[in-house]
Write a structure and sequence with these properties.
Elements: H1 3-11, H2 14-17, E1 29-36, E2 39-46, E3 72-73, E4 76-77
Antiparallel strand pairs: 1-2, 3-4
C-alpha cells in the first residue's frame, strides 16, 4: 500500500477507496468519485491549503469532516 493510500484509508473506509480516483489537477488534493446521469458524489482530501479561482456550479452542498473551508459567495466570505 502506498503512503497516499495509507493517508486516505485513515479518512475514508474501503468502499470509498474502491471508487475511481477523480482527476483533480491540484497539488495536494486526492479524490474518489461516483456518478450517474443526474448526480455526482466526490470524496476529497486536501493535504494542504488550496485557493481556487472564482467559478460556479449548479446546486451543490458539502460536508467538512476535519479542518475548515472558506467560500466567497456574492462577494462575501463565509
Amino acid at each position: 500500500m502506498s503512503d497516499k493510500e495509507d493517508i486516505m484509508k485513515s479518512i475514508f473506509p474501503e468502499p470509498i477507496l474502491g471508487l475511481p480516483e477523480a482527476d483533480i489537477p491540484l497539488d495536494g488534493v486526492s479524490a474518489y468519485l461516483v456518478q450517474g446521469p443526474n448526480q455526482q458524489v466526490i470524496f476529497m482530501r486536501f493535504d494542504k491549503d488550496v485557493i481556487l479561482s472564482e467559478h460556479s456550479h449548479a446546486g451543490q452542498w458539502g460536508i467538512v469532516l476535519e479542518g475548515k473551508i472558506e467560500l466567497t459567495l456574492d462577494g462575501a466570505t463565509h
